[in-house]
From TrEMBL:
One of its GO terms (cellular component) is cytoplasm. It comes from Caloranaerobacter azorensis DSM 13643. InterPro entries: G_CP_dom, GTP-bd, GTP-bd_ortho_bundle_sf, GTP-bd_ribosome_bgen, GTPase_MTG1, P-loop_NTPase. GO terms for molecular function: GTP binding; GTPase activity; RNA binding. This is Ribosome biogenesis GTPase A. Residues 13-178 form the CP-type G domain. Gene3D superfamilies: 1.10.1580.10, P-loop containing nucleotide triphosphate hydrolases. GTP binds at residues 58-61, 130-135, 174. Keywords: Cytoplasm, GTP-binding, Hydrolase, Nucleotide-binding, RNA-binding. Required for a late step of 50S ribosomal subunit assembly. Has GTPase activity. Belongs to the TRAFAC class YlqF/YawG GTPase family. MTG1 subfamily. Pfam families: MMR_HSR1 (PF01926). It is found in: Cytoplasm. GO terms for biological process: translation.
Length: 282
């Protein structure tokens, strides 16, 4: 599959990040816990540079619990603060403010010692589309400050948002990068909904997802759809799921579009199970 998506507003957002980075004290880098590597924008890494940051692994409730902890250890070994959260249910979000204050404690103490009146700690939240930025902001602020949606690219423009405690947040739209060096990265983003389904062949995407699940979570796939995987191709598995779920057209033909949407939707909602597509040891 040739996946390449870089809407015009994303180029503008890249410039916005560069321009406004000097206004903030710390960066919150929001990743998808199911795909911490693929959801990490390498452009953002370059733009942030040595600015203090907290890595936030969102949607941890949809990811494998054991592998979640492995990712936390992975970042800890690299002296990077990482937090597991479920922004939709406001789980773990209080630690974000705690860690931000801890990281910036020395800087704030120096300002106080110089007699400089303490200003609000300003943070920037960055991440790819549909990773949950607006949901997180609303959880932290306790009100609907940012627009949310289950489609990539809902957030637009720049806005400062007052959070709990002495913290202000600069929200930015989600950005991808112009070219995927690795097509597996593009597939992972497509599986989790970071790329609009409309620009892809949804049936091939679902087939690729089945192929991946056979590799990383075969038992969960079998348990959810009551299918056997041994000696079967991904296409045969997809067709068996279609038959079991009634995704059939007139004449007993398989409704590939319907079963494709069903499988992708159930993966994204965690209905198939808690599944992580990327492991730190790999």
């Amino acid at each position: 599959m040739n996946i390449n998506w870089y809407p015009g507003h994303m180029k503008k957002t890249r410039e916005l990040l560069k321009t406004n980075l000097k206004l903030v004290d710390i960066v919150f880098e929001l990743l998808d816990a199911r795909i911490p590597v693929s959801s990490k924008n390498p452009d953002i890494e370059k733009i942030i540079g040595n600015k203090p940051r907290v890595v936030i692994l969102n949607k941890c409730d949809l990811a494998d619990d054991v592998i979640n902890e492995k990712w936390i250890n992975y970042y800890r070994e690299r002296n990077i603060t990482a937090i597991l959260i479920n922004a939709a249910k406001n789980v773990g979000t209080e630690r974000i403010i705690e860690e931000a204050n801890k990281i910036l404690k020395e800087k704030l103490q120096k300002l106080k010692a110089k007699g400089i009146k303490q200003k609000p700690v300003r943070a920037m939240i960055v991440g790819i589309p549909n990773v949950g930025k607006s949901t997180l902001i609303n959880s932290l602020s306790g009100r609907k400050s940012a627009k949310t949606g289950n489609r990539p690219g809902v957030t637009r423009g720049k806005q400062w948002i007052k959070l709990r405690g002495n913290l202000e947040l600069l929200d930015t739209p989600g950005i991808l990068w112009p070219k995927f060096e690795d097509q597996n990265v593009g597939l992972n983003l497509a599986f989790t909904g970071a790329i609009k389904d409309e620009i892809m062949d949804i049936e091939t995407l679902a087939l690729k997802l089945i192929e991946r699940l056979i590799d990383v979570a075969p038992d969960k796939l079998k348990d959810r759809y009551k299918v056997e995987l041994e000696d079967k191709t991904p296409l045969q598995v997809m067709e068996e799921i279609a038959l079991k779920r009634g995704c059939i057209l007139k004449g007993r033909d398989i409704d590939y579009s319907r079963v494709a949407h069903l499988i992708l939707d159930e993966f994204r909602k965690g209905t198939i199970g808690k599944i992580t597509l990327e492991h730190p040891e790999k």
